[in-house]
Design goal:
Elements lengths: L20 E4 L11 H13 L4 E4 L11 H20 L9
Parallel strand pairs: 1-2
Length: 96
């Protein structure tokens, strides 16, 4: 059995932002709803590439077009995957 400890995510200070950051692109279904399965797969790929961070909801300007629930779900999905990685002591810098 694997025990997962949740690590509290905190905003970064300027000196903590370094390295290679990846952009999380928003996958959409044909009806313009968020494709959460593809989103999770994309996050997994970015984490496996050992990037220093993942930037979400803003680089392509898509954030203005989301309902609050969608915004929260996207951020929760990203944060939860990063917390698992951090608690497993792998790719410590990813997903800040």
């Amino acid at each position: 059995m694997v025990t997962i400890n949740v690590i509290e995510m905190k905003p970064l200070k300027a000196h903590e932002i370094y390295g290679n950051w990846a952009t999380l692109l928003l996958p959409l279904n044909d009806d313009d709803s968020v494709n959460y399965k593809q989103l999770e797969e994309q996050i997994d790929v970015l984490i496996s590439c050992r990037v220093n961070g993942i930037y979400s909801l803003g680089t392509a300007g898509e954030f203005y077009n989301h309902m609050e629930e969608e915004f929260d779900q996207i951020q929760t999905t990203l944060a939860s995957k990063c917390n698992v990685i951090l608690s497993e002591n792998f790719c410590r810098d990813a997903c800040r």
